[in-house]
Amino acid sequence: PAVVMTYTPLMCSVMLLIDVFFGGQSVALAFLVLAVSGWSYGVFAIAVPNFVSGITSPAFFSRVYGKIFLAWGVAGLSAPFVAGFLYDRSGTYAGALLLAAVVSVVTGIASLVANAQTKGLAVVSAET
Fold first, then answer.
1. What is the reported pTM?
2. pLDDT for 54-82, tens place per residue?
3. CA 102 remoteness from chain centre
């Protein structure tokens, strides 16, 4: 899951940038961008709980994953408002897509750093 957690957001950011710079040029390209972005979301939805279960003990899984899922929900609820605000200011969704691409890159880099820091560390347990 660690590799997936790093490279899936980076792949999604590439797709978002393709959409910003080449969007509207073909239906096939739009389908590719949507398909890869949807696939990335699904893979990430599966990888996150697997990753969390690998770094926490079963006693802490619900607490840790609950916080992550809450943050995911907040992002899911706030993103449309941010995208709408950016659209109202510019008349295009390019700003929202660029912001999403930047957030995806930051996510990939944060995952890479977290993976490097957790290598060799003990799993968090109820005893610690």
1. 0.78
2. 888 889 999 999 999 999 999 999 999 99
3. 11
Name the residue among 52, 68, 45, 61 with its Cα closest to residue 2: 52
Q: What is the pLDDT of residues 10-50, one digit of tens each?
A: 998 999 899 888 877 888 888 888 899 889 889 888 888 98
Q: 3-state SS of the chain?
A: CHHHHHHHHHHHHHHHHHHHHHCCCCHHHHHHHHHHHHHHHHHHHHHHHHHHHHHECHHHHHHHHHHHHHHHHHHHHHHHHHHHHHHHHHCCCHHHHHHHHHHHHHHHHHHHHHHHHHCCCCCECCCC
Q: Of 45, 33, 3, nearest to 93 (Cα)?
A: 33
- Which residues contact residue 49 at a Cβ distance below 8 angstroms, ignoring those fewer than 6 apart? 65
